[in-house]
Amino acid sequence: MKENQASRTAQSMAIFRALESARPPKERLFADEFAAMFLSPSMRLAARIAKKSGAARNRLIAWIDRRWPGGRASAVARTCLIDRTLRQALMAEIRQVVILGAGYDSRAYRIEGIEDARVFEVDRRETQAMKRRVLMQRLCPFPPHVVFVETDFMKQTLAEVLASSGFDRDRKAFFIWEGVSNYLDERAVDATLRFVGSNAPGSQIVFTYTHRGLLDGSGAFSVSPNVLRHLQRAGEPWTFGFYPTEVASYLHARGLELKQDLGAIEYGALCMGASKDEMKGYEFYHVAIAEVRKREETSCRR
After folding, report:
1. Backbone angles phi, psi at 263, to 5 degrees
2. How many other CB atoms sit within 10 Å of the CB of residue 294?
3. Angle at 235 between CA 234 and CA 236, to 5 degrees
4. Torsions phi, psi for 117 (to 5 deg)
5. What confidence score (pLDDT) does residue 251 get?
6. I need a surface site. Which of 145, 210, 292, 302 has the fewest CB within 10 A?
7. How far apart are CA 42 and CA 58, in angstroms?
8. Main-chain dihedrals φ then ψ at residue 141, nearest 5 degrees
9. Is 290 helix (H, G, I), strand (E, B) or coil?
10. What is the C-alpha separation between 78 and 80, in angstroms, rounded?
């Protein structure tokens, strides 16, 4: 990502959420009333038209799906899955939520019951500055349960920035790490997951990752060249991925137990009843859910 520039890929995610939220209440998978607020004027106009006209919305969605096959459907389905997992954590009375690389994520303001938790939004200064300016247009006073934590995953440790923001590592926490790991390097990913694994047993993390086979060429995927060109133009190329067969052992070495690992075809079918063809183009994308193991099980951890 370029210096002093808010994330362009975060805005892409926002338009996908805005279009899903524009559907009638009985048809949409979630309602994100904040998503359209983060869009450029032209994209905001498109989202407004999509909300007023079902036909216009369907045409726009069809155009996006042709240009970036699987991207929108994957984003919508993974948003639904992470929302569901977060609600389950809140029902289990986890009262600390950490959103890593929060971008324009609005879960702290739209998930029912999250106001009873302490939410730590962790991201780069540029992205957070824009987000706060936008949110203050609607949220005044600003919700007291949200703490903004500025960081750069490549330069600072989570332990440092969260400790100074009031995070309690002795209490269970729920971590969301959506759409971030694929932009980092091996050192940053390792440090982040080791930190999560060092928290209170029973803490959970839901995170997304890219199949490494897409990055090293060893996998056969139907990804559109438009996706990779868009990332290059945005200055946000993918740099890291996992082989799915190695995720469980990788997490185990860092104090975490893998509970679930779903590829795009699987979470698309689970969350929106999508067919394999609807998710084609993003088969390489995964959502994983893991839990911090008991201390006695992690005493020999490297």
Report:
1. -80, 170
2. 12
3. 90
4. -110, 165
5. 98
6. 302
7. 17
8. -70, 160
9. strand
10. 5
286 — phi, psi (to 5°)?
Answer: -130, 155
What strands lie across the sheet with 174-177, from one edge to the other?
A: 146-150, 118-123, 96-100, 174-177, 204-210, 285-292, 256-263
Q: Predicted confidence band at 129 (pLDDT cuts at 50, 70, 90)? A: confident
Structure tokens at 72: 């929108």
What's the whole-number average pLDDT of the chain? 89
Q: Sketch out the chain's domains with CATH numbers.
A: 69-298 (3.40.50.150)
Check residue 1 and give its pLDDT: 45
Question: pTM of the entire structure?
Answer: 0.91
> Which residues, including other chains, have CB under 8 Å from residue 239's CB and lie 6 or more apart?
182, 183, 184, 185, 215
**Alpha carbons 123 and 176: distance in angstroms, whole number:** 12
**Residue 166 C-alpha from the chain's centroid:** 23
Single-letter code of the amino acid located at 172: K
pLDDT, tens digit, 9 for 90 and up, residues 169-218: 999 999 999 999 998 999 989 999 999 999 999 999 999 999 999 888 88
Helices (H), 166-238: 186-197, 212-216, 225-233
pLDDT given for residue 93 in this prediction: 94
3-state class percentages of the chain: helix first, strand second, coil last, to nearest 5: 50, 15, 35
